[in-house]
Amino acid sequence: MVVVGITGGIGSGKTTVSGFFKELGIPVYIADVEAKLLMNTDKQLQQEIINLLGKEAYVDGVLNRPFIASKVFNSKKMLSSLNAIVHPAVRKHFEEWVSVQKAPYVMQEAAILFENGGYKLCDFTILITAPIKERISRTIKRDGTTENEVIKRMKAQWSDDRKAAMADVVIENIILEDAKKAVARIHTHIMVRISKGWT
Fold first, then answer.
1. Low-confidence ranges of the chain (pLDDT < 70)
2. Taking the model in full, what pTM does it have?
3. Mind giving me the DSSP string for the chain?
């Protein structure tokens, strides 16, 4: 199965762009969503998170996201430790998901695809970018957060330039119609490569 990775910094609109691939019949595994689900349902994972962050990490068995964000986005070491717990569980879950898919290829959407080495498991990678002001505005609107919080989260991620150097293709997501056309072109390119045995 050909695996296409799609990533982008906070507020870049990667989930919107992933949706365009879904419209073309391509299954999309959204790593951040699945990670939250696993953190709320996997008992072993929950215990490891409590061991790292303390009992406050959960309230009535539900992930205490504001508490965790306050811990990890102020400490690169803590974020790295949390990722080291969560990412292997998500990777295993993703591999199980891939094994039952029937499409010509699948997509994995992940915010830190390059940072966590997940790109190494992909056959092709797509980076979604947008101007920083636009990304801040989108995230404030979406999450009801502050500009300072968004900037803090951005600093925890690699720059677009660093990721662009590693990506196979970059989609600039400013005008939705343009992004949708880019998706159609990339989909055709991938399908042609698959028809030729992915060369």
1. 199
2. 0.89
3. -EEEEEEE-TTS-HHHHHHHHHHTT--EEEHHHHHHHHHHH-HHHHHHHHHHH-GGGEETTEE-HHHHHHHHTT-HHHHHHHHHHHHHHHHHHHHHHHTT--SSEEEEE-TTTTTTTGGGG-SEEEEEE--HHHHHHHHHHHH---HHHHHHHHHTS--HHHHHTT-SEEEE-SSHHHHHHHHHHHHHHHHHHHHTT--
